[in-house]
Write a structure and sequence with these properties.
Chain lengths: ~300, ~230
């Protein structure tokens, strides 16, 4: 500290000349008008909201971007088709056994128990509608969403996160390869198709296993065709739209969420921060979709 | 998108890069590269050389001035046009650019497959020919992580010279390369120049590639005060 500076403030004095000057300047400023104060508050509120909701907002934009780009023939270049094919193979081919296994377990644990207890309570006629509403419409999308997230969603988070932090995404851009077009769009659409396919297979496996267990244990004596006919006739017209739509939307949002979590990684991120973030976001997304569909329909 | 086939292939016109975004000094960069020319830019700092190549590719925001490639200002183009133009740039970079979920062969051919409608067999044939030219036994199909650094460098050269690039941004591959790569590299540069490509060869020191210095049309130094022309001869 120079001698001049030390002389500005006397030792032991309570007065701070810098603070005092600042206070003086503030006091001299004209009072803010009401309009300016309101605008400032609104700006602060907007900043806070955007900061809290930025991922949600990015996701909304990306969802629209994927839908918009997917309808443009020019977007479907062979590299994009290749990525779509590889991801689709990974999602459906890789997840098939796990999905069928989960469906079988659900059939044993939920479907057969439902059939048993409804029969026990004399409500066997409601078996079809309850299985459709509980297993196919509520449980299946959530479990398939979790399987998609765990098997392929987390893989996308990791791959794209490492590409982003490692600089490969920048290299893609330098080659004129748009990461959104090359990676996000085909992967999201592959997840969408995969969500629908695995969801239907899961539901079928669960119902079939439930029927087999119930038949073996003697709870029901109907042939399998009658059982499935009961389930199908218990479905309303809206169910034929909502159930597939739920599978499709779950696959879509898990795909977008996983890709975006990876692409929005910063240099400070690593696997220890990326994976928990990706998983918690994915779970929230799956649950939110499930709840939204339950509320609206 | 109307591209220009006459005039400079790359033109930096008092381009002042954003310091916050790039780390390059916020001073005017001016340079003009005609088709078939080869400019050597000496940059001691490797990361700065990469950012300079980014600047030429329109990846660095500017505070002022313009960077034009084939007569088109990067900042005035839409995303699709920008990407299409970047598809005409071949690049060897020190920045990680290989992805493990694609095989090396896909990494090499990705740019051509994405930006052109060339027959896949043609692309594969060209990639195989260039791979052999650069000393690889054929088109590498292993994952990049399974290749040695020297082979990855050769694969980077193959990728950069694929197709018919109008501009080559080469962050010196000869610096730590096997001796046999030099001949192939210089030969590829000559061929590319004959086809009208402009070349920016970023080197860390003048000691590298001295055999080719006679063929160089201009020399520059990337310094704190921007791009400084170095007297030839």
């Amino acid at each position: 500290m120079s001698e001049t500076n030390t002389n500005q403030r006397e030792p032991g004095s309570d007065r701070d000349p810098i603070l005092e000057a600042e206070n003086h300047q503030q006091a001299q400023r004209a009072p803010l008008s009401l309009k300016v104060r309101i605008l400032r508050r609104l700006a602060w509120l907007g900043r806070l909201t955007r900061h809290q909701l930025w991922f949600f907002l990015i996701m909304m934009g990306a969802c629209w971007g994927v839908i918009f780009e997917s309808f443009r023939a020019h977007s479907w270049r062979r590299t994009v088709r290749y990525e779509f094919g590889v991801t689709l193979n990974s999602v459906i081919g890789g997840g098939l056994i796990a999905t069928l296994f989960a469906g079988t377990l659900t059939g044993v644990a939920a479907v057969s128990q439902t059939i048993y207890w409804l029969g026990f309570a004399g409500l066997a006629k409601m078996t079809g509608s309850i299985l459709v509403n509980v297993v196919v419409r509520e449980i299946a999308p959530i479990l398939v969403g979790i399987l998609l997230l765990g098997r392929n969603g987390m893989l996308s988070v990791t791959e794209l996160g490492l590409l982003t932090t490692g600089g490969q995404i920048r290299s893609f851009q330098a080659q004129g390869l748009d990461p959104f077009l090359l990676l996000v769009m085909p992967r999201t659409l592959a997840f969408t198709v995969g969500g629908f396919t695995l969801g239907i297979l899961f539901s079928f496996a669960a119902l079939l296993t439930g029927y087999i267990i119930s038949r073996i244990s003697g709870v029901i004596t109907n042939p399998v065709w009658t059982f499935f006919y009961d389930v199908v006739t218990a479905m309303s017209g809206a169910d034929y739209i909502i159930i597939p739509l739920k599978f499709i939307v779950v696959g879509f949002v898990v795909g977008v969420g996983g890709c975006l979590t990876g692409l929005t990684a910063t240099n400070e991120d690593n696997l220890r921060t990326l994976l928990p973030r990706g998983f918690s976001r994915g779970m929230l997304i799956v649950m939110a979709v499930s709840v939204l569909f339950s509320l609206d329909f | 998108m109307e591209t220009r086939n006459v005039g400079p292939v790359l033109e930096l016109n008092k381009a002042i890069p954003s310091f916050e975004e790039s780390g390059l000094p916020p001073v005017p960069f001016s340079m003009r590269l005609m088709p078939g020319e080869c400019a050597v830019v000496e940059a001691r700092d490797a990361s700065r050389a990469t950012i300079f190549a980014d600047l030429c590719s329109g990846l660095v925001p500017l505070n002022d001035g313009a960077v034009k490639f084939m007569g088109l200002d990067w900042t005035e183009l839409h995303d699709r046009e920008v990407n299409a133009l970047r598809g005409r740039i071949g690049r060897i970079t020190r920045r990680p650019s290989w992805t493990d979920f694609l095989g090396t062969h896909m990494g090499i051919m990705l740019q051509q497959l994405h930006h052109t409608t060339r027959d896949v067999n043609d692309v594969v044939a060209e990639a195989s020919r260039l791979s052999e030219q650069f000393g690889l036994p054929g088109l590498p199909v292993l994952r990049p992580a399974m290749l040695s650094d020297a082979d990855l460098l050769r694969a980077s050269c193959v990728r950069a010279f694929m197709g018919r690039p109008h501009l080559l941004l080469l962050e010196d591959p000869l610096e730590a390369s096997p001796a046999d790569l030099e001949d192939a590299f210089l030969s590829a540069i000559t061929t590319a120049r004959d086809k009208g490509a402009g070349i920016i060869w970023l080197v860390r020191s003048n000691a590298v590639g001295q055999r080719y210095w006679q063929g160089v049309t201009s020399r520059w130094r990337l310094a704190d005060d921007g791009l400084v022309a170095v007297r030839m001869g």
